[in-house]
Structures are given as structure tokens and as C-alpha cells.
Amino acid sequence: MQTQRLLVILGLLWGVAQAETWQVKVTDNDGDPIAQAAVYVSSQTSPPKPVKPKEIVIDQIDKEFVNHLTVVRTGTPVSFPNHDKIRHHVYSFSAAKVFELPLYQGSPAKPVVFDKAGVVNLGCNIHDWMSAYVLVVDSPFFALTDSHGIAQLELPDGPGYVLSAWHPQLKSLTPDTLTIAANTPHNAGLVLTMNLKKNVRAIRLPTELGLNIGYR
Question: pTM score, two decimals?
């Protein structure tokens, strides 16, 4: 997934009578919760049944992408409606998906299908500060952590899973692993620590500098 690394939670989840909701807490090195981290099943012994993913939406509102991080299953079509009164030019040069939506308002004629697993960096060719990420995974089981750093995944009965976690600011070069032994109760406290790099983004114009600069 480009230069960004994954943190991996290795889970051997068998002996479960039925689907259970598993909670994973993601924190930084100081123990503070990390919100908006993606946790997902990256491998399982019994592959999930193929289904046709439903179309999802990543909005553009007030010259920002909403949301900053979106997780989708491989093959998911994504629409990029522009709700601003100016035009945007959405693009990505990421290995997992290269595409371009030239200057437009409203909604593009067709959604973009994300057909390869990986991290996709989104940008706007007009507004440099606009950035977002699409994490494409080969699984229907994924969740984002809430403000308390908690991700909840309801996993079906099965002999084994590998859970992975990712965040746009992930700094660690070596994955941390956590083994969930057989017969581990689904409500066991699972904590994963991430080492994050500083969040640096382009200055937003004109609002952050008070400049009267027009946009197309």
C-alpha cells in the first residue's frame, strides 16, 4: 500500500457459536484514543461470499472531501458529488486507482469503481489543501474507530481471521501484532498502539490567510 504501512492484528477466532461483535481499541503511544482509524479483516480461512457492492458517496462540501477516510470493499462504485458553487477537479495517481474527474459541478455522469485493494490518495487539482483517502479492502468486514478509538466488527462464525488497522498518519515501519488465542471471549479488551506522524497539510486559501482570491 504505497509507502504507508499496515498494523496487523493476528486473530485466530474459532470456537465461536455465532457471530459476535469484537471491539478493538486503537491508541497512540501516550495511550490517547485514535479516531478514524480503519480496522478490517485482511484474511480469513473461509473467504466471504461475493456480492455486488452498493454505490457509496464521497461529498465535496465547503472545499473539503467528506469524509477524510473512507473504507470500501473491492469493486465498490464511488460517486463524488460537488455541492459547492465552484468547480472541482478530483484525481488520484495512486497505484490502487488512477482516475481523473476534470472540472465539474454537481455529480459526474458515472461513479468511479475501486477495483484493486490498496490505499488511494484523493486530491483536487484546483484546491491543493483538499485531500482524502479511500482504503480499498478485499473484505466486507471493516469499521472506523469512533472518538474513543473503538472499532466494532461483527464477524461471522469462522475458523480464523486476520485483522489489520490503518490510518493516514501511520508512521510505524514494522507491524505490531496481537494474537487472539482460541476460545478468547469476544468481549476481551483488545488494544492496539499506533505510532503516528505529524499531520501536515497544505494551507487553505483564502479563508486561512484572509485573501480575496477567486476560484473557478
Answer: 0.82
